[in-house]
Amino acid sequence: MHKSVDHNGFTLIELLVVIAIIGALISLLLPAVQKVREAANWAKCVNNLKQIGLACHNYHDNNQSLPPGYFATAPYLDGASDTSPGWGWGAFLLSYIEQDNLYRSIHFNLPIEHAMNRTAIQTMIQLYLCPSDPLPPAAFLVPDAFGNPLATASPCSYAAAVGGDESDTTGLGGLGIFYRNSKTRLADVTDGTSATIMIGERAWGNAKGIWAGAIANGVILRGEQNPNPPSGAPWYPAAALVLAHSHLNNPQAHPDGGLDDFSSKHTGGSNFVFADGSVRFLRSVPGDLPDGSYTADSLIFQALGTRANGEVVPADF
């Protein structure tokens, strides 16, 4: 006489149902996990800019001015070939962001790309990197306009404000706080320190900037995640390696690729530190009107980039 045997395992249909339920739960949880991760990244980026703003103020207290956008000793020619030695605002702030040993290792009298500065400029500085930005794991190659290698330098997710669209990053001066050989005092910011951008995000994934400065004859290249059509300019001159102007924020269709504009990998805008040390998230200004004129948002954003132009900026921008 045979005894019946009970099988307590899952049937194939039951197993498929369980797998489907688990998949549905994962699909529901994944966006929440991504939102939590981005919130943490955003908070870290805000803290980076707060520390950079504090460093700017401490530098100002000790030197009676803010650091230059970049420092050049050669007569002005074009902001591309004449930027040497080229050290930028990020290098001058090193002693104020707990990087004094790195600061002391730099030979500021020599060009950025000089062999004696090779180790220094390849140093990754976490404070200058937004965790939402798709960054390289180490220093990357900075070429000239023909693709010839000039230096290997560490990336940066932030750029200093040279002004609005009226101020080119490659110019001799600018209406903003930072430009070639600038020595802006906070007293010079008559538009109001709470209404004037000092430094903001420019995602390395969009434009491959560095913290060290403006390497003579070097160019800033498009990042792999640059959203602008690839038919435009593939590079921008040396000064844009550390400077940007407040014309557009997260540009989407600009012929120069937005290489001299601000951008981020956060949703809807970018973080900025203002001259009073406060950090604000400003909404995206993706482009101009079809006839080439400025949008209302662009005009406001440009006003935030100038230090003493007399514009009135709405508080809710």
Give your account of this protein's structure.
The chain is an alpha+beta fold and 317 residues long. It has one domain (36-305). 24% of the residues lie in helices and 14% in strands. The chain contains five helices and eleven strands. The chain has helices spanning 12-63, 89-92, 100-105, 118-121, 296-305; strands at 70-72, 85-88, 140-143, 149-153, 158-161, 197-201, 219-221, 235-237, 243-244, 269-274, 279-283. The strands form four sheets. Strands 9-5-6-10-11 form a five-stranded mixed beta sheet, covered by helices on one side. Strand 10 (269-274) and strand 11 (279-283) form a beta hairpin. The N and C termini lie far apart (86 Å).
Which descriptors would you attach to this protein?
5-stranded mixed beta sheet; 14% strand
Low-confidence segments, given as residue ranges, are none
Instruction: Output the strand order for the largest sheet.
Output: 9-5-6-10-11
- The shape is globular
Total strand segments:
11
Order of helices and strands: HEEHHHEEEEEEEEEH
**Tally of helical runs:** 5
Helix content: 10-25%
End-to-end distance: 86 Å
Give the domain tally.
Answer: 1
Q: Give the percentage of residues in beta strands.
A: 5-15%
**Structural Rg:** 23 Å
By secondary-structure content and strand pairing, the structural class works out as alpha+beta
Q: Strand count, sense and closure of the main sheet? A: 5 strands, mixed
Mean pLDDT comes to 93
